[in-house]
Amino acid sequence: MYLRCAALAVLLSIGNLALAAPARADLAALLRRSETADARIDYSGTKVISSTHGHHHPGPRERTVRIWHRAPDRSRIEFVAGGPPGGLIIEVGNDKFFRGQQGDFRRFPREPQAGGIELLLRNYLLRKIKTEPVAGRMALEISVEPRHPGNPHKIVWIDLQTSLTLKTQLFSSSGQLTEESTFTELSLHPVFAPNLFDVPLGAQPINPPPPISLDFTPKRPGYLPPGYMLVTTTNFTDRQGRLVACLRFTDGLNTLSLFETRAGAGDDPAWFRGHAITGLAGDVRFAIVADLSPAEVDNMARVLSRPR
What we know:
Elements: H1 2-18, H2 20-24, H3 27-35, E1 43-51, E2 61-70, E3 74-81, E4 88-92, E5 95-99, E6 105-109, H4 117-123, E7 124-134, E8 137-146, E9 153-159, E10 165-171, E11 177-187, E12 204-205, E13 229-237, E14 243-250, E15 255-262, E16 277-281, E17 284-290, H5 294-305
């Protein structure tokens, strides 16, 4: 026990010496390097991922995964505990392949990162907290805090040598921890088995739904919370057969979704069954889904409801 404590003390002291450079350096540059670390570094390790809420899995949920990553764009993620039995994800380039319990692979396109690091840096301040070991490596703990009140925030632990993100905590706009992801073991010199990232031929793609033409003109919001920008617009048909437009906005970290559908005679005002602020804008019913301060969401809904 004494030797373990002494080793940890030495590790911490080395980390504090290493902190001298990052403390004076630009934290934004370090965060930028962390965003591209996967494209430069091979690694393998074990990660624990936990969440405190979810639409499909209410209450606390924890999963343990084993990860192999070969730069720039190949990953293999096996579920060790808490996930689907036999679950496996293989990422190759822009494609993601998932193996379910039946052993069959399906292909999904990777979702592009909305907004990007530069948008996040415009809307969030970076604050150095401390250095501490994560998975046996010294990491710099950085708090990513909103410039505009009422938004979520996060804390990241970045490897001082490689800029890999070793740990992440996400907090809601009310300050509650909602998600955490932590490497418990990490190797930067992995030996990849042959065919580790191979996917069986004939993996069936999940085809995107065909384009949908709306029977109404979507309303663009007259007010957006500071820092948010439109990133995607998609149309779909809901379970009740309504045509729905979804406008997605982001500030680089948080996401705001605006759902709209045509308001027909006798429509149920509570047409949107999720947790949202709903209202009527002319001939369109809308629902705003966002982890934001109530004042900001109410203001957005109020302006959207005004006659134009």
